[in-house]
Amino acid sequence: MTALIETRGMHVKRGNVTVLRNVDFAIHAGEIVTIVGPNGSGKSSLMKALIGAVTPFQGQVTRKKGLRLGYVPQSLSVDPSMPMTVSRFLDLPRRSPREARQAALADAGASEIADRQLTDLSGGQFQRAMLARALLNKPEILLLDEPTTGLDQPGQAAFYKRIEEVRDNLGCAVLMVSHDLHVVMSASDRVLCVNGHICCEGRPEVVAQAEEYRALFGSGTGGALALYRHQHNHSHDDGASCDHDHQETA
Ligand SMILES: Nc1ncnc2c1ncn2[C@@H]1O[C@H](COP(=O)(O)OP(=O)(O)OP(=O)(O)O)[C@@H](O)[C@H]1O
């Protein structure tokens, strides 16, 4: 299967400092991949190099031709003195048909906020408005940089659940940076542990046990995987049924 984005031997500098070394990475259609790592370890730099906002000084990044990207940045400051509805926000920088805006808000689980002022939204609603904007062009890959910053734990869990639904409904790949290890690990197909390079990578269960991961986050997070696990019995449209044994967050 062709990768949506792939890097080979990628080195990235910010200023004069090499912040990422020798990154080999690929993400494919429909995957949910989470990047974890300490502060300053190069997670955002990796994301920026993948979307082309930062150019690697060595190695290659290959994006599928015509790849449709949706990007939710780490932060966006809104001038509280500037009145703007969510609908208007979705029209920046490019106007979209009303139906497209409504569909994106529905996909983001936020249909009811279309006419609300941006500055009146709760943190969770604002994140959904950002998500809706990233979904407007029906992305093949959605990239989210710490999308739940400022949300409480139920808010985080609800947001990641919505991301899984978006992936299921739209079939897009999802690549996100997160510090919410306990919540995000089991929502991911694959976890990438970054600290200036890729320390370890694999299924969440495997990464949580890896020495490199434990050296960075301690063994306490080994049990973190259990936290988000919930009972997840349902049928899909294609008739297949899911029966994972998850436990709810304490
Ligand atoms: N524009 C820049 N110019 C110079 N150095 C930068 C720039 N952006 C980031 N850096 C440096 O690059 C390193 C990696 O930063 P990056 O933002 O990628 O880390 P991160 O893992 O996303 O961190 P955090 O978890 O704190 O968001 C840090 O040392 C940071 O200070």
Automatic annotation (TrEMBL):
<dbReference type="InterPro" id="IPR050153">
    <property type="entry name" value="Metal_Ion_Import_ABC"/>
</dbReference>
<keyword id="KW-0378">Hydrolase</keyword>
<keyword id="KW-0547">Nucleotide-binding</keyword>
<dbReference type="InterPro" id="IPR027417">
    <property type="entry name" value="P-loop_NTPase"/>
</dbReference>
<dbReference type="GO" id="GO:0005524">
    <property type="term" value="F:ATP binding"/>
</dbReference>
<keyword id="KW-0406">Ion transport</keyword>
<keyword id="KW-0864">Zinc transport</keyword>
<dbReference type="Pfam" id="PF00005">
    <property type="entry name" value="ABC_tran"/>
</dbReference>
<keyword id="KW-0862">Zinc</keyword>
<dbReference type="GO" id="GO:0016887">
    <property type="term" value="F:ATP hydrolysis activity"/>
</dbReference>
<keyword id="KW-0067">ATP-binding</keyword>
<dbReference type="GO" id="GO:0010043">
    <property type="term" value="P:response to zinc ion"/>
</dbReference>
<dbReference type="InterPro" id="IPR017871">
    <property type="entry name" value="ABC_transporter-like_CS"/>
</dbReference>
<keyword id="KW-1003">Cell membrane</keyword>
<dbReference type="InterPro" id="IPR003439">
    <property type="entry name" value="ABC_transporter-like_ATP-bd"/>
</dbReference>
<keyword id="KW-1278">Translocase</keyword>
<feature type="domain" description="ABC transporter">
    <location>
        <begin position="5"/>
        <end position="220"/>
    </location>
</feature>
<dbReference type="InterPro" id="IPR003593">
    <property type="entry name" value="AAA+_ATPase"/>
</dbReference>
<dbReference type="GO" id="GO:0006829">
    <property type="term" value="P:zinc ion transport"/>
</dbReference>
<protein>
    <submittedName>
        <fullName>Zinc import ATP-binding protein ZnuC</fullName>
        <ecNumber>3.6.3.-</ecNumber>
    </submittedName>
</protein>
<keyword id="KW-0813">Transport</keyword>
<keyword id="KW-0472">Membrane</keyword>
